[in-house]
C-alpha cells in the first residue's frame, strides 16, 4: 500500500539563477527557492538532489542577510557534484534543509572574532563572515586568517580584496606553496596565528578547514589562551540523510548532521575520533 | 484482568483469526538451527522453540530496501514521496527481539520523525513469546535484562505446558482477545503457575553470562576506547557487515537513486548499510574517519553498549547473540566483552546474582 504523507525526504525545487566558475575545480551556484527564502543560519547545510543521481550535503556559502537566493560553492569530486557542474542557469535542483546547528550568532555578538579558514573551509565560513560584516556594529574586533594550498585554489578573490580593504576587519592570508606571481605569505595557516593580537577573554575563534587542520590550529589557539568553549569548529562528515538516522556522519555519540556540524572544542575534545 | 488463557489446540485458530485481517509472520524452521520470520497461513508452520532467526523482525519495520520516492524527470526535479506499509501480525517474537524493536522505535520516533518507519510500525501487531530457557551459548540476554518481557508487545504468550497464558498490553491486544473468542480468563492457579515458571527462570538465568554488573558496562567502555582488544578485532574482522545486518538494533542505511530503463523515471530508496563497510564514514574529499576495521568494530560495540546510554537510557545490545552466530571470523560478542573486562580488571564472577532487576529496571 502506498500512502502520501509528509516525508522528511521530500525535496523543494531550487532554480539555478547563475553559475560562476571559481577555479578549475569549483563552481558557485546561486539558487532560489520560488516564493521563499532558505532561512538558514550561517554554518548550516542543505542536501542537494538530482533525481537519478542522488543527494549530497553542501554547506551554504552565502549569508542569510542575502535574500531571495542562496549560494553553494561546489568542488567537483563525485557523482552528484560532477553532475551539478554540468548544470547551467535556469536548470532545477532538489533542495532539502537547511540542516544542522550553525554558528551560535547570538552568543558571538558583542565579542571579538578570529576566523581561521583552511582550503574549502572558507566556503561555509564566508556565510558567517558576511553576516558579521553585514551586522558589523554588533561585533567587536574581527580578524580573518585564510590559508590554501596554492594561489590558484584561492576562492572569492574579489570579496577577499574587499575584506582586505575594510578598516574594521584585519585580513591575512597564506599559501602552502607559492607561484611566481604570489607576493603574500608562504606557509601553513598555523603560522599566521601567533601574529594576531587578541584579548583571549572576549575572543571567539571560528575554525573551518580540512580534518587534518583542526588539531594544529587548535593547539595554536590554546597557546593564545582562548578558552575551549570559545573555539568553534565545523566538522566535515558524510551527512547522508540529514535527519540524524542513517549513521554515516556519527562521531561518538553525536550525529554531525543534527548536533553539528558546528561544535565547540570543549564539546568534541573528549569524543574519540572527532578531530 | 490482564491475563488470558489459550488452549494449545487452539493456536491454529488464533493464527487463522489473525490471518483473516492481515499478513501473519512467525518463525519458521528453514533447516538445522536456521529459522526465519516468514508468512504463515497455518499455526502448524510456526516454530515457537527457536534460536533467534537469521534476520531479526526489524525487516518488517525497516525492510532491506524501501522506496522513499518515485520520480519522473520529464516533470522536472519534482518527486513523489512514498510511504509504504502493510498490515502485519508478528507472531512469536522473543523478548530479545521485542527489545530490538523498542530500540528502533526510539530512534525513528525521535525528531525529525521518520514517517516511513512509523507508518509501518503503526500497522504491525506484535505477539511475543517467552523463552523458558537459553536458546544457545551465544545469547547474553540476562546481561542486558532482556530474558524476561519488558513491554514492547500487544500480547505476550508464555508456555505453561498444557496451555498458553497471555499478557494483554495494549488496546490492540485486547481487541484480539475480545474478537477472536478463543480465550478464557486466567485463574489464580494459572498466575501461580506463571510465577513458578518465572522463579525457575531466575534459576536458569541465575547470573550474568558475562562477569560484569549491568550498571558497570558504561564504565567499562569509558575505560576501553584505547583497548588492545580493538587491535585484535582489527586483525580478525573481514568487514563483511554480517554482524550489523543481523543485529536487531542496527538501522544505518544508504539512500540510492535507481533510474528505470527509460532513464527518465525511477525511484529513490534506502537500503541497509553497515558501519563495517570500508567507505561508510568516508567523505568526498577522501578522508575516511573509520579507516581501520578495528575502529569500525569498536564503533559497533560503542553503539550497542555506550552511546545509547546517554541518548536513550538503554543498551542497544539485546543479547540475542546474532552477531556472534553470523560472524565469519568467529568474533564473539561475549568473548569480546570478557576480554575487555579482564583487561580492565573488572571481573566479577557473581555479577547479576540475587539481583532484583527482573522487577526493577536499571537506572543509569
TrEMBL record, chain B:
<dbReference type="GO" id="GO:0051536">
    <property type="term" value="F:iron-sulfur cluster binding"/>
</dbReference>
<dbReference type="GO" id="GO:0046872">
    <property type="term" value="F:metal ion binding"/>
</dbReference>
<protein>
    <submittedName>
        <fullName>Ni/Fe hydrogenase subunit beta</fullName>
    </submittedName>
</protein>
<feature type="domain" description="4Fe-4S ferredoxin-type">
    <location>
        <begin position="227"/>
        <end position="258"/>
    </location>
</feature>
<dbReference type="InterPro" id="IPR017900">
    <property type="entry name" value="4Fe4S_Fe_S_CS"/>
</dbReference>
<keyword id="KW-0411">Iron-sulfur</keyword>
<keyword id="KW-0479">Metal-binding</keyword>
<keyword id="KW-0408">Iron</keyword>
<feature type="domain" description="4Fe-4S ferredoxin-type">
    <location>
        <begin position="305"/>
        <end position="336"/>
    </location>
</feature>
<dbReference type="Pfam" id="PF17179">
    <property type="entry name" value="Fer4_22"/>
</dbReference>
<dbReference type="InterPro" id="IPR017896">
    <property type="entry name" value="4Fe4S_Fe-S-bd"/>
</dbReference>
<dbReference type="InterPro" id="IPR009051">
    <property type="entry name" value="Helical_ferredxn"/>
</dbReference>
